[in-house]
Amino acid sequence: MSEQPRQEYVRFSLTDRIEHFLLMTSFTVLVITGLPQKYVPAPWAEFLIGLMGGIETVRIIHRIAAIVLILESIFHGITVSYKLFVRRVSPSMLPTLQDFVDFLDALRYNLGLAKRRPQYDRYNFEEKIEYWAVIWGTVVMIITGFMLWNPITTTKFLPGSWIPAAKAAHGGEALLAFLAIIVWHVYNVHLKTFNRSMFTGKLSREEMLHEHPKELERIESGRIRPEPPREVIRRRERIFIPVAGSFALVSLLLMYFFVTYEETAIATVPTPVERAAVFVPATPVPTTEADMRLALSRGRAQLIPHAISPGRENCLACHGLGTLSPYTTIHANLRLGNETCLGCHPPMPGAAALPGNGEVPSFSAEILPILQRRCVVCHHRATPLDLTGYRAIMRGDGKGPLVIPGAASQSRLLTLGGLSVEVHPSQFTAEERARIGAWIDAGAPEN
Amino acid sequence: MDRALVRVCWRHLFWVLWPVALLWSAAVVHAQADPNAACLACHGVPGREALLAGGERLPLYVDGEAYRLSVHGQKQLPCTACHTRIMGFPHDPLLAFDRRDYQLDHYGVCRNCHPEVYDATLDSMHARALAAGRREAAVCTDCHGAHDITDPHTPRQKISLTCSKCHAFIFEQYKESVHGAALLEESNPDVPTCVDCHGVHNIGDPTTAAFRLQSPEICGECHRNEALMSKYGISTAVFNTYVADFHGTTVTLFQRQHPDQPTNKAVCFDCHGIHNIKAVDDPEATVVKENLLETCRKCHPDADINFPASWTSHYIPDRNRYPLVYYVNLFYRIIIPGTIGFMLGFVVLDALRRLLLRIRRQQVVKQVQVEAGHHE
Question: Does ipTM top 0.90?
Answer without folding.
Answer: no
